[in-house]
Amino acid sequence: MFAWIVVLASAKRLPSMRKQPARLATWTMYLFFALIFTTGWGVVWDRIDSWSGLPESNTLITMCWVICYSASALVLLQQWSYERDRARRLARLTITAAVLVLAVMVGLFLRSDATHHGQQSFTAWYGGSVEYEAYLLTYLFAYTAVEIEIIRLCRRYARLTTRSWLRTGLATASIGAAIGLFYSITRLADIAAARAGLDLSNLEDLAEVGAGLGALLVMVGLTLHWWGPRISTVFLRTRRLIAYARLRPLWARFYALDPSIAFDDQRGTSRVRFADRAKAARRVLKDPEYHVARRVVEIRDGILTLRPYQDPAVTQGARAYYGSRGLTGEDLDAGIVAAQIHAALDVRDASPRRNQPPSPASSSAPADLDAELTWLLKVTTFFTQPHSRNIQPASADPTPTGGTS
């Protein structure tokens, strides 16, 4: 269904694709992939013979689609791999070879003994007709040659490409072509076994997996550079939205303390109408990268407003508390900062008129947003834990209570 959606949605651009051979080859590859699995669908498969009037024509048609699909994939790789004139010559050669293979396949299939058609036993199907064996060998030779060439080209250029969706796609296509070779090996084994009177019908599942999964991976791999970046964008937007929501507890505490830290000082207030909240949510969904960067900046600005209220004794107490629980590195630092924020907020709430610098103006987005997010998410995690606000400052007097002994 996905392949048909791509084919039908892109059909209106076919006239322009005539000048873009790679795009045309991609569209053709999707078309034949869709035809392969549509023909193999039980509802269609069981009716093809009656529609065509030719016994076992479903097998012939499906294998012809496979040859066309494989040729399209090879032409697409040739368009990528060679300069324009050479790519066109190779594409014409590939298409001509595919047409010749299809002609030979149809001729041999039509000349195969009538007794072969309708046979259900394994040995009669694969070994009952010389013409049918020649038909299968022609098909398998062409299919295998294309799969080997796909593997060669994909591996060659994947090694030359930097890490990207294109490199991943080439590697995926080469794996798919290698899996497709299992189909060739299985079918060749079927012919040899039928000659020897052996039944290898228990390997049918392996052959079907090799053909189906191999073709799927080749198609996915050769188009991954096109739709892969869209997946990356979706994942990145999702991660940003999750981070935006996870930072809210810390951000909301600073906003309640000093609304001037916010670029949009309507957010988070209880008096905002539902329509305003919906509008703000749409803005965030439209550009989460910008809004999560704004939230990071606003939290950083909020931390700056608390500098006059920070107590070194709280830092020492938090270090001792979290250090005794095995925290080190950034986790320990994040816990200390969370404890400092809680203590500074309590002090500020108790004496809001203390002499302090004005709230800093909102600065630009951080240079490394991912690093800032990782850090502030850790701080927020500690900030929301109940024990982080109950950490006692370290005593400045090392003498035990009760005086000297």
Automatic annotation (TrEMBL):
It comes from the Bacteria. InterPro entries: DUF6545, MAB_1171c-like. The keyword Membrane applies. Residues 348-367 are annotated as: Disordered. Residues 239-384 form the DUF6545 domain. Keywords: Membrane, Transmembrane, Transmembrane helix. The chain crosses the membrane at residues 24-45, 57-78, 90-112, 132-153, 165-186, 206-227. This is DUF6545 domain-containing protein.
